[in-house]
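lol forgot to send this yesterday, sorry. struct tokens for the thing we talked abt
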């Protein structure tokens, strides 16, 4: 595959100890060589692969020294992109690293697009698409567990499973071909039918097994979208603060203090929560607050988990009752807050309204009950089991969508067999299953999709 030479700054933009300009492609070493002035006249075109060299970066036009650097030379194919790669380690600082990048660009490289290095690793066959996607998940991981899932996928756990399933399908397809080519052998046809049914059932089971991990996988990857809701002044922001353990949201005794939606990532016993503190839900005249309340309702609709806070020092109000109604059928934990005050809430009624949902009592003022709440959350999502290190999770929504389509296709195969559809017609659905699974690892995938996927990466990755 013929590709031009690309370059980009691969470290964050800002002041740091070191910043790296990465170059990949046929001309990477030659371009770097033009700019590099090594000790004793050492030339980068002469050095062995996978070595690092101290020297100056000099503008070949003006002979002006631009930087002092360490330069790594890595020759294809044992590199990140499988192309020649040079990394110039500059002094960390926006100006210095940018000047070096400019020099690299004026001497023959093109500025890389976001994700283009990883895209090349994919196009050159070092990793498949799901592994490339895992590289991005790794960068974005917000908890250790999410990181472990990404590492597993990057190492090819999911790819292996998918490839195995595709291989099985291919074998069945081969059988069918024989059957179509030699229809005169009755026993072949019979065997094909029996085998097809067995295999299709097996493939269906495997896809279903993978899809079962999707819920938790998605939580690990994106965080469990958790909405804290309740009437004004019940202690929603106090709850967020207790969970975040820093005073991010403003807490006051004026009802309606939180006028917008506040979002925080917290790690509760390994469960990543995307916590959303909302404005207290009530009918309001204040325009600013009303917008906040509307947003809260929207957050509520999109949430995976609801933390419904009730002030137990007051009797239940019609608004409280309405909130219970609004969250019916969702994952809910009810929090009876302000236990330190004289209790006025009808706990029997709360139990009735909660319809089996977990109820936790807290005094957020005294920081009591938060542990119990955290236990309840962990138990709800990972059944208290936080290890499962070897488990393969499907966490990417693109993969989940494709698996769902593949499941549909394999069900069509099974239905076809059941209703006596001619085998060459059934084969069409089988091939479709194969194609859909192939899209996960990038074997059968459109260029436009590739571009869209990789464009979501960081610059220089
Ligand atoms: N300086 C630097 N650090 C970095 C990266 C980088 O590109 N540069 N990486 C970038 O993300 C990550 C490391 N990822 C890498 C993955 C594969 C290969 C690689 O060369 N693979 C070869 C085999 C190497 C060998 O056998 O020695 C291959 O798989 O063919 C390199 C880096 C994290 N740290
Ligand atoms: N006594 C007592 N007061 C509490 C407790 N939890 C919170 N408060 C107080 O209740 C008031 C309201 O708390 P917030 O956390 O701001 O309540 P909120 O639900 O976010 O209120 P809005 O944003 O106005 O909807 C504050 O004065 C808190 O200190 C508790 O457990 N006991
Ligand atoms: Mg608040």
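and heres what i got for the seq, position by position
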């Amino acid at each position: 595959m013929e590709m031009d030479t690309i370059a980009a700054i691969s470290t964050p933009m800002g002041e740091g100890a070191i910043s790296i300009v990465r170059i990949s492609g046929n001309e990477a070493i030659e371009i770097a060589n033009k700019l590099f002035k090594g000790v004793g006249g050492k030339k980068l075109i002469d050095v062995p692969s996978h070595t690092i060299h101290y020297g100056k970066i000099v503008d070949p036009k003006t002979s002006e020294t631009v930087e002092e650097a360490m330069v790594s030379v890595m020759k294809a194919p044992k590199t990140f992109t499988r192309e020649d790669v040079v990394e110039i380690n500059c002094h960390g600082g926006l100006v210095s690293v940018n000047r070096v990048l400019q020099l690299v660009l004026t001497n023959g490289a093109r500025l890389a697009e976001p994700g283009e290095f990883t895209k090349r690793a994919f196009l050159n066959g070092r990793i498949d698409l799901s592994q490339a996607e895992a590289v991005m998940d790794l960068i974005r991981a917000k908890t250790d567990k999410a990181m472990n899932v990404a590492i597993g996928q990057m190492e090819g756990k999911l790819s292996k499973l998918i490839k195995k399933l595709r291989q099985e399908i291919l074998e069945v397809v081969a059988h069918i071909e024989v059957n179509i080519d030699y229809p005169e052998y009755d026993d072949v046809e019979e065997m094909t039918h029996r085998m097809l049914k067995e295999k299709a059932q097996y493939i269906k089971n495997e896809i279903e097994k993978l899809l079962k991990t999707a819920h938790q996988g998605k939580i690990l990857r994106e965080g469990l979208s958790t909405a804290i809701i309740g009437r004004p002044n019940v202690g929603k922001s106090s709850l967020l603060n207790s969970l975040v353990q820093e005073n991010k949201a403003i807490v006051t005794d004026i009802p309606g203090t939180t006028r917008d939606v506040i979002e925080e990532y917290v790690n509760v016993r390994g469960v990543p929560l995307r916590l959303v503190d909302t404005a207290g839900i009530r009918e309001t005249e204040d325009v600013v607050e009303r917008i906040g309340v509307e947003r809260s309702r929207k957050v509520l609709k999109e949430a995976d988990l609801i933390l419904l806070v009730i002030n137990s020092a007051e009797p239940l109000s019609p608004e409280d009752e309405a909130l219970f109604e609004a969250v019916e059928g969702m994952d809910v934990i009810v929090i009876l807050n302000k236990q330190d005050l004289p209790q006025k809430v009808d706990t029997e009624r709360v139990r009735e309204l909660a319809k089996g949902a977990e109820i936790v009592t807290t005094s957020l003022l005294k920081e009591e009950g938060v542990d119990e709440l955290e236990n309840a959350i962990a138990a709800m999502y990972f059944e208290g089991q936080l290890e499962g290190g070897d488990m393969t999770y499907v966490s990417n929504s693109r993969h989940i969508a494709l698996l769902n389509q593949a499941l549909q296709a394999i069900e069509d195969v099974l239905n076809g067999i059941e209703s006596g559809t001619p085998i060459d017609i059934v084969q069409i659905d089988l091939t479709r299953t194969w194609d859909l699974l192939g899209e996960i690892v990038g074997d059968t995938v459109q260029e436009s999709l590739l571009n869209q996927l990789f464009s979501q990466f960081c610059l220089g990755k």
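The chain has a mean pLDDT of 88. anyway ping me if u want another try
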